[in-house]
Write a structure and sequence with these properties.
Radius of gyration: 13 Å
Order of helices and strands: EEEEEEEEEEE
Distance between the termini: 37 Å
Helix content: under 10%
Length: about 120
Amino acid sequence: VQLVESGGGLVQPGGSLRLSCAASGFTFSNYAMTWARQAPGKEREWVATIGSTDAYTNYPDSVKGRFTISRDNAKNTVYLQMNSLKPEDTAQYYCKARNGPAIYWGQGTQVTVSS
């Protein structure tokens, strides 16, 4: 099982980034996918979730209207489009796959929002 995040980097406030998470080793289309983030000295926090199809999505208030999660089951990939980025969005971003008790995490990709 592997989840590989990519697309992180340094961006100015107000800018955009699109993160990708490529999955392998399990039946991706059966799993709900989540993006989470962790800033230094803080707990990991949920950022976005999408159901096994893209009929269900959910976001916390802190990113609602700025972030969009999507998935391509044909490519075994989940995306996080991040717009209007703020310095407080700076964190390591992780993707998670979940199907009942089966949970997998990726290694993360760093997003830094700074001028």
